[in-house]
Amino acid sequence: MNAPLPSPSAAPVPAQPCIDSRFTVPGMRCAGCIGKVERGLALVPGVAAARVNFSAKRVAVSHVPELTDDAIIEELGKLGFEAERAAQNPLGGDDAEARRLLRALAVAGFAMMNIMLLSVAVWSGADTVTREMFHWISALIAIPAIAYAGRPFFASALMALRYRRTNMDVPISIGVLLATGMSLYETVTGGAHAYFDGAVMLLFFLLAGRVLDAMMRSRARSGIAALLGRMGRGAHVVQDDGTALYVEAERLAPGMVVLVAAGEALAADGEVIEGRTTVDSSMLTGESDPRPAGPGDLIHAGMVNLGNPVRMKVTAAAQDTALADIARLMDEAGQSRSRYVRIADKASRIYAPAVHSLAFLSFCGWMLAGAGVHHSLTVAAAVLIITCPCALGLAVPAAQVVAAGALMRRGLLIKDGSALERLAEVDEVLLDKTGTLTLGEPRPADLAALDDAARSVALALAQGSRHPLSRGLARALRDAATVPATLDDLAETAGSGMSGTWEGMPVALLRPETETAGLAVDLLVDGERTRIGFVDPLRPDAEAAITQLRAMALNPSIASGDRPESVALTARRLGLFATSSMRPADKLALLERRSDAGHRVLMVGDGLNDGPALAGAHVSIAPGSASDVSQQAADAVFIGERLMPVALAVRAARATMRVVRENFVMAIGYNILAVPLAILGYVTPLIAAVAMSASSLLVVGNSLRLVRAAGREENS
Amino acid sequence: MSILAFLIPVALLMGLAGLVGFFWAMRTGQFEDIDGAANRILIDEEGEA
User: Which candidate, A208, A214, A458, A549, has a CA 20 to 30 Å from the CA of A396?
Assistant: First the structure.
């Protein structure tokens, strides 16, 4: 299955032990990319093997220790892919959880099928010795399977009971254990009714719900993990001998001198000691205009160096940076959210006591009627089995997984089901400006000054560089269906620009020599100079998305850290109420005022300065271009240039809650029909099995209607 | 009825084989990169070289 790995003579497989490094390569989109990356890396001397994980957009490279990560990133760059170091085993815990549940589901499924095979024989009239033998075989399969597959429920129920609370898992555990115990007793005494099939089937359906829930979480998180890693994870520290060594952000210390390349994000606070540049602080403060920085100026972690490479002396690192203050605010803000109670738990608070008292009452009732302990216990077990929240356990996750899948196809990754529940309750939206309503990336203000030839030359030059201005220019030109020209001698001069030769003429994309008001580059074609100015434009569908939000009575408004003048411009264009010059703590305070007034606020923001607000809001969404911190704090992340996924998310969340409520009604309706039968003692294992599967199928079928929850307007 | 002594172990063994197969697939990472496997079939074996 591997793309063939050519083994050129230049790269003999090294004899010394190899080390493995992992890189995130978000640009891989097709089979060709997989082949290109794997073959291209295999040709690099020192690389033993490269294996792409396409779903996670990662590549694992096995290489000799001498080959640095930077060299590999550079090789990937030459192949045409932007790459970043992947964080070590990001969010691995979720994956392990999903796998454990999946194994339990497999065991429950195996046991269920085999026991059902035997049960069908018993139901269709096998008796005496055959029935007893089948019961014994069922017991032998069921008991180990229940012990293994039931662990997630038993553990959670025990935990809840230890804290003197109850959750959905308590009635499940009691029901399963009681049914198993009763069936074992029946088997030993040669009785007619064994509920092994019911107990195992119950576990199977409930585990299916849990697996769906866990898979939704891990799928969204691996999508988000692939986006992470663009922020400064480390820096190139200048050694005594003048060479640069990559050091992780946590190991940076004050006094070190670091080299900050153009386009790189800062990993520590510091003072510029050499070079002049412009820095983009929009992530940190929300300010949209880059500001100049020269020797003596302080620059902070989280800012991006837009201009020239500079040397910076670290003044504060790791826990002491301005960033870390924001992180502390976030920690405090995030605590309010952990108090949110999920709808399934809310339901079980009423449901569990009701079910338990019903079962207990039917036991007492039959005892009073003189039916004997054995018969009364059988009835009580039947009541527990039939009321066990099989459909209830599926009602919520099935609907949420289908809706999350639909939203994912529209570019919105939801981290978990509770986010969908909270999204449905939202009645106000607070939007950040820079990077949220706007793209947060410089784009050429006007391409009209360039003719077709100039455009294709500009694209050929721009796509060779990772500088933010080059990337913005390349993107805009590609969107305008420009075909890149073929250039010779393409070269990048750090801090100056790109140059090359086109049909014998020298061409270049250069930093303007004269000071300009905003960001700009000069395109040189055979000595002729054209200036291209840059702005941070609104997202293409911002107005439409705002209209949608208003139509849902969500009352959107802007909360920005930018200067009042530039905020007012955007606010007027979108017709929104706006507050400007807000510090991170101000945004959080504004949120608290709104929530004290009884509103449930959706916060949409990208910058580090939005982090506390994202963590403190009732629910929050961040764009895929946001800082790592913001993406981790937010409940959902939307990818791409469009803002519409935010409006779609709210709409889909509301549709989901509607379906969840329908599912609950169905599950309760089924109980109303089945419970009287159980109490009267008419429920046999056959009826229990049929009722359980029928209600579960109904709930899953109803949830599947959400497939179109976010997809009705594909052509908009 | 003696056919049961043969059929039941067969059914159980087949079920177990499926279960073991699934565990094996999970442990060896067959589900790690589902989209990648779908795409890899399109890679040209000869390559550009």
Answer: A549
Kindly report the pTM of this predicted structure.
0.75
pLDDT level of residue A150 (50, 70, 90 thresholds): very high
Question: Inter-chain contact A55–B49, Cβ cutoff 8 Å?
Answer: no
Q: List C-alpha distances in Å: A234 to A251, A253, A268, A271, A625.
A: 8, 11, 8, 17, 19
Query: Is A683 contained in some domain?
Result: yes
Calculate how close chain B gets to A98, using CA atoms only, in Å. 11
Q: Hey, how many other C-beta atoms are within 10 angstroms of the C-beta on A9?
A: 5
Residues A503 and A550 in one domain: no
Within a domain: A713: no
- A217 and A238 inside one domain: no
Percent helix, strand, coil in chain B, to 5, is: 65, 0, 35
- Number of domains composing chain A: 5
Residue ranges of A 106-165 with Cβ closer than 8 A to chain B:
106-107, 110, 113-114, 117-118, 130, 137, 141
Chain A residues with beta carbon closer than 8 angstroms to that of B47: 3-4, 6, 35, 39
A518: nearest Cα among A504, A499, A531, A502: A531
* Measured CA distances, B29 to A99, A322, B22 (Å): 11, 41, 11
Contacts of A352-357 with C-beta under 8 Å, sequence gap 24+, read A352/A166, A352/A167, A352/A168, A352/A170, A352/A171, A353/A166, A355/A171, A355/A383, A355/A384, A355/A387, A355/A388, A356/A171, A356/A174
Q: How far apart are CA A379 and CA A73, in angstroms?
A: 67
Residues A425 and A373 in one domain: no
Residues of chain A with C-beta less than 8 angstroms from the C-beta of B41 = 31
Which residue segment(s) compose the domain that A52 sits in? 1-86
Please indicate, yes or no, whether residues A635 and A523 belong to a single structural domain of this protein: no
Alpha-carbon span A229 to A633, nearest angstrom: 15
CATH number at residue A546: 3.40.50.1000
Return d(Cα A656, Cα A641) in angstroms, integer: 25
- Note the pLDDT tens digit of each residue in A621-667: 988 877 777 777 888 888 878 888 899 999 999 999 999 889 888 88
Chain A residues within an 8 Å CB radius of B6:
none
Q: What is the CATH number of the domain that holds A8?
A: 3.30.70.100
Beta strands in A130-256 (DSSP E): 234-238, 244-248
Q: Which of A86, A116, A144 is a domain's end point?
A: A86
DSSP strand E in A448-579: where?
Answer: 488-493, 497-502, 505-510, 519-525, 528-535, 556-559, 577-579
Closest CA to A87 of A62, A69, A71, A75: A69
> Could you read off the pLDDT of A537-557 as tens digits, one per residue?
888 888 899 998 999 888 889
**Best residue in A114, A129, A140 to probe B by mutation, most B CBs within 10 Å?**
A114
Q: Are A121 and A80 within one domain?
A: no
Look at A103 and B26 and tell me if their CB atoms are within 8 Å.
Answer: yes
**A79 and A29 share one domain:** yes
Q: Which of A213, A432, A606, A628 is catalytic?
A: A432
Residue B33, C-beta contacts closer than 8 angstroms, at least 6 positions apart: A52, A53, A54, A55, A56
Across the beta sheet with A577-579, the strand order is A412-414, A636-638, A619-623, A601-604, A428-431, A556-559, A577-579
Active site residue A635: no
For residue A321, tell me if it sits in a domain.
no
Indicate the residue of A3, A4, A130 with minimum beta-carbon distance to B1: A130
Q: Which residues of A are less than 8 Å from B36 in CB distance?
A: 34, 52-55
Task: Say if A52 falls within a structural domain.
Answer: yes
ipTM exceeding 0.95?
no
